[in-house]
Amino acid sequence: MLRVISRHGRSATALRHPVTVQSSRRAHLQTKTVTDDDIAQLAASPLHPLTLTDLVRHGSPPLAAEQLYDSANFTLSLLPARLAHRIQSMRNLPYIVVSNPHVSKIHGNYLHSLSTLLPWAKRKITTLEEELEFTEVMADLVHTHANTIGTLARGFLEARRYITPPEVTKFLDEHLRARIGTRLIAEQHIALHMSSQPHKELCPEPEPQKSSFIGVIDTCLRPADVIRQCEDMVAELCELKYGVRPSLVINGEPDYTFAHIPMHLEYIITELLKNAFRATVERGMEREPVEVTIAPLPEAPPPNSSDGITNLEQGNLDRASKTDAMLEKETHSPAVRAAAATIRPLAESTPGVTIRIRDRGGGIAPRNYARIWEYSFTTFNEEEAEEPDLYHGGASLGAGGGLDVLSGSGGGSSIAGLGYGLPLGRAYAEYFGGGIAVQSLWGWGTDVYLSLRGVGKVERKDETNRGGQ
C-alpha cells in the first residue's frame, strides 16, 4: 500500500484502492517513448513560479467534479516541464557519473515518469474516468521517486572521484529542492482526490471525515503533536541501538497551531531529534532531557525583513554574532535561493513559528562545525565513510535522512547515515521562507533553531457552496 501523506495522526489516511501502484498495475499505465526532442522542448520552457495560493486555489475538500478536473489539469500543466528540467540537469553531469548504476537508475525513473505524462500532454481532463486514471499516474510518480535521496547518495558516494565536491553540492541543492516541489504538486492532487466524493460511484469508499486538511496542507497543524510523534520513533531507534531512551520536554506555547505541511515538519523534526538524541546518549547525558521550545513568530515582521534568517532573528537568534563566512553558508548562493523560492508563501507576512531544540550532547567539535551543511560524501574519504565517531562529542548534524538504522546503513555505535539529514531538512524549511541555524557551545551542547513560516490563513468554504455536494 502506497502512503504519500504525512504519518501525523490527523493527516489523510494512506492511499486506498484504486489509487495504489503495484508492479503489475504499473505495467498497465499508458506510456509514450520520450525522445531527446521532447526533453529539449520541455526543458527549454520556463518553470511556472508556483505559489501556495495555487495549491489551495481549487477550494477545500470535498471538491466537486469540475474542481477535481481543474486540479488535475493544473497539475498536468506543471509536471512535464519540471521532470524534463531534472533529466536535462542530470545529463549535464559528467558521463561517468551518470553511468553509475545508482545515478543511472534515478535518471531512468525520471524518464519513466515523463513517459507516463506525455500521453496526457495535449489532452484536457474532462471526465471522472480520466481524472481517476490521471491520479493513478500521480501515485505511480510518487512511488517511483520514493527512494531518490538514498539512491543518489550512494551513487555520488561511489562516483566522488569523478566530480568535485562543489559540483556535487550545487547539483544536489538544486535537484533535491526541485524534487520537493515536484512531489508536493503530485501529492496535493492525490490528497484532494482522496478527500473528495465525485468518483465514489466508480469506486465506493467511506465518506470522508471533516478535516483541517486542504490536500497535504493542514490548516491547524500543532507542532507539539508532530514533535511527540517524532520523539516516539527516534527514542525507539535510540533504545534499539544504545539500550537507553532519552527524554524530551516541550515548553513555550505547545498549543500553538498554524497552516503548514505536516510531512515536511515531520522530516525536519525527525532529523533534528536524531542528532540531539544521538549526541546526548553518546556523551552519557541521557538523564538530561532534550528541551524543545515552541515560540510563535509575530504576524507582522519588522521593517526591511527578508527571509528565513530574519525569521530566525525573531526567534532570538543573534545574527550579529555570526561571521560573514557563516552567513554566506547559511543563505547560500542567489541561484539556490531562487530554486528555493519556486514555491512561495501565500503572503509575505504569514503566521509562523520558531522551534528551538536544545541538547546537552557536548556541542560540535570546532573542526567539524564548518562542515555541518555539507553532504557527507563531499568530505568523507573511504575510511571516514565507515568511521562511526566522526561527529562524536557533538550533535551528529550530518545524520542521514532516514537512511541509517531504518535502512540498515548505520555502522558501529552511531546512528549517523549518509549525511543528507540536516542539508535536506534546511531545504524543506527554506522552501517556504524559513530556515535552520545552529549554535554550538563546545563541551556543553547545541541549540538548533528551526524557523517555519506558515502558508497563510486559508478561507474554508461553507459546505453549501461546493457545487451542490
TrEMBL record:
What is this enzyme's class at the first EC digit? transferase
Q: What is its main location?
A: mitochondrion
User: Which Gene3D superfamilies does the annotation name?
Assistant: Alpha-ketoacid/pyruvate dehydrogenase kinase, N-terminal domain, Histidine kinase-like ATPase, C-terminal domain
Q: Which InterPro entries match?
A: AK/P_DHK_N_sf, BCDHK/PDK_N, BCKD/PDK, HATPase_C_sf, HATPase_dom
**Could you tell me which residue ranges the Histidine kinase/HSP90-like ATPase domain spans?**
260-456
User: According to its UniProt record, where is this protein located?
Assistant: Mitochondrion matrix
Q: Which Pfam families match?
A: BCDHK_Adom3
* Residue ranges, compositional bias (Basic residues): 1-10
Give the span(s) annotated as Disordered: 1-26
**Family according to the record:** Belongs to the PDK/BCKDK protein kinase family.
Report what the protein is called: Protein-serine/threonine kinase
Source organism (scientific name): Phyllosticta citribraziliensis
